Amino acid sequence: MIELARSVLTFSLAGALSVLWSGAFAAPASPSDRESAPVITALRASRMISGGVVTHNQVVIVIGNRIAAVGPAADVVIPPGAKVIDFGSDTLLPGLIDTHTHLFLQGEDPAAGGYDVQLLKYPLSFRAARAVVAARRALEQGFTTLRDVETEGAGYGDVGIKMAIEGGFIPGPRLFVSTVSISTTGGYNLEGYAPEIVVPKGSQLIDGPIEARRAAREQLSHGADWIKVYMTHRSWLDAEGNLVSQPTLTVEELKAIVDETHGWRRKVACHAYNGLGLQRALDGGCDTIEHGLELSDANIAQMLKQGTWYVPTLAVYYYDWSPEDTDGGRKDRKEVALHGQSFAKALKAGVKIAFGTDVGGFPWSDSIAQEFGREVQFGMTPLQAIDTATTRAAELLGMQGQIGVISKGAYADLIAVRGDPSADVERLKQVRFVMKDGKVFSDSEHPVESGEGAR
Ligand SMILES: [Zn+2]
Q1: Cβ atoms within 10 Å, residue 176
Q2: Does pLDDT of 452 surpass 90?
Q3: Is 50 exceeded by the pLDDT of residue 449?
Q4: Cys bridge to 27: 164, 167, 324, 429, which one at CB 3.0-4.6 A?
């Protein structure tokens, strides 16, 4: 009990003083900052998964917004007055992390105007309102942290959404935001309009290392936690049926961005499909390769040497295929064939792989957890797949030990799912309980009716 009393003191202080991110934008004081006595919750789990290990009959003590103790039920003392939640045969896991999302996209239906209508016709307030819903949807599905990789023409809207979440004004995951992103002239949508018409772009377009560095500085100074760069743009099949993608930034342009961003102790995420653009992404020092549809053996060797992360986003490429006998349809099928092979090769070689979905590229009403099934399809065990969205994703974000793990001192981001996801990853689609930062967001067995935590 002495140990516990010390924990209470330590964690209430930590809760009051901790600042999650060192961004320039401090959110207004949240209601929780004014609380005095920290809430104590004890979670009983007959099965728990954390750090790639399955354990049984565990108890987790949450004080304030941190995990104060975790261990076998026989060894952990539940403090008097604690609220006890017993998960029965369900499984307790760390809150999940998606490292590739777009809160400001909604899986645009081509028949409803597709991507372009978002930038051409919708007020930013409308897009922000939908991003608020998307953030809530992520949390409902057990994703307590997102790396959101650009707003697609909605400027610095992600910085505002993050402030509103951190301030306790709206529910949502912890956010790492990338703001506007960077590509080159001819390297991003909107496209296909008369050359005389100036249309908005879904990315900040630069030409030359000076403009590249300036764009990175602008975005970092306005609150970007990561810089997102598009290293390839259009793609097609050549006469031999090979996937070809148009490269965008030169190595010199990318190096200016990476140098600037690393100077701020932040990192660079690079969209790259294959070929020349992917090679430049690696030569220029990207920290994470997004999508990586076709990784050559040399690419994989270079990623291993440089410690580059791979965020494959498999599931999104199974959406909206064109008919089989069209150019687009052939490309759709070629892409997933190459992608599956690349994933399997990277896994076997030991490339660091983190969970990412590109949700927003498909509707937020669809399951984010569908990606786990694709990871298993291409060679991961269920526990490896769970690791990509917990310990591995936390490592990518530089948050190891803080999130993605159930251990003493970590943030109390916890979920429970039906049954045993180490036997069947599809269980991760059935989230019954979500706690973020020590507060119960949803509990299907014991619905939150009102008061703190009610939304
Ligand atoms: Zn994306």
Answers
A1: 26
A2: no
A3: no
A4: 167
CA pair distance 127, 158, nearest whole angstrom:
11
Contact 329/288 with Cβ under 8 angstroms? no
Summarize pLDDT for 384-443 with one digit per residue, the tens.
999 999 999 999 999 999 999 999 999 999 999 999 999 999 999 999 999 999 999 998
The alpha carbon of 197 and the centre of ligand 1 are apart by a number of angstroms equal to: 26
Classify strands 243-247 and 182-184 as parallel, antiparallel or unpaired: unpaired
Cβ neighbors of 3 (< 8 A, separation 6 or more) are none
Q: Say which residue the tokens 């790259």 belong to.
A: 272
Question: Residue 313 Cα, ligand 1 centroid: separation in angstroms?
Answer: 8
User: Do residues 92 and 412 make contact, with C-beta atoms less than 8 angstroms apart?
Assistant: no
Asked, as a colleague might, if the bond just before 190 is cis with ω within 30 of 0, I would say yes
- How many A from CA of 271 to the centre of ligand 1? 8
H helices of 194-324, in order, are 209-221, 251-263, 275-283, 297-306
Q: How far is the CA of 428 from the centre of ligand 1 (A)?
A: 22
CA separation for the pair 47, 54 (Å, rounded): 7
Q: Which protein residues have a CB closer than 5 Å to ligand 1 (ion)? A: 358
Do residues 307 and 278 touch, judged by C-beta distance below 8 A? no
pLDDT in tens, 35-83: 568 899 999 999 999 999 999 999 999 999 999 999 999 999 999 999 9
Q: How many angstroms separate the alpha carbon of residue 384 from the centre of ligand 1? A: 23
Cα–Cα distances in angstroms (integers) from residue 84 to residues 54, 65, 72, in the given order: 22, 16, 15
In angstroms, what is the span from residue 102 Cα to ligand 1's centroid? 6
- pLDDT score at 24: 41
80 CA → ligand 1 middle, Å: 47
CA of 11 relative to ligand 1 center, distance in Å: 37
DSSP H or E segment with residue 50? strand 40-50
Cα(77) to ligand 1 centroid in Å equals 45
Structure tokens at 211: 């403009």
Rounded to an integer, what distance in angstroms lies between the CA atom of residue 172 and that of residue 130?
A: 13
